[in-house]
Amino acid sequence: MNPLLILLIALLVISGLGLIIFILLHSGKGTGISDAIASSVYSTQTGTSIIEKNLDRITIVFAIVFLVDLLALMIVYPTGSIA
């Protein structure tokens, strides 16, 4: 296997798992995992807390890395070229 292929696939798997984890950490209406963790630290007022803003930023970064890596795999290794 090509080292570039190994690197791109590993990055795709890591960013995909990170994306799943950080999407699941988001709260919907105050019943998410992040609210259970942060309820004792931050008060629940209107608007998003600091933790939610950071979760949004991290999720966006993982999504961008995932999409860029997927596009790189599509360009470098078109259909049928990996054998």
Summary?
The chain has 83 residues and is mostly helical. The chain is built from three helices and no strands.
Can you describe this structure?
This protein is mainly alpha-helical and 83 residues long. It has 3 helices and no strands. It has helices spanning 3-25, 33-38, 50-76.
Mean pLDDT: 81
> Treating each run of at least 4 consecutive H or I residues as one helix, how many helices?
3
Which residue ranges are poorly predicted, with pLDDT under 50 across at least 5 consecutive positions? Answer: none
Order of helix and strand elements from N to C terminus: HHH
Q: What is the strand content?
A: under 5%
Going by helix content, strand content and strand pairing, the class is mainly alpha
Distance between the termini: 9 Å
Shape, per Cα inertia axes: elongated
Largest sheet: none
**What is the CA-atom radius of gyration, in angstroms?**
17 Å
SSE layout and pairings?
Elements: H1 3-25, H2 33-38, H3 50-76
What keyword list fits this structure?
mainly alpha
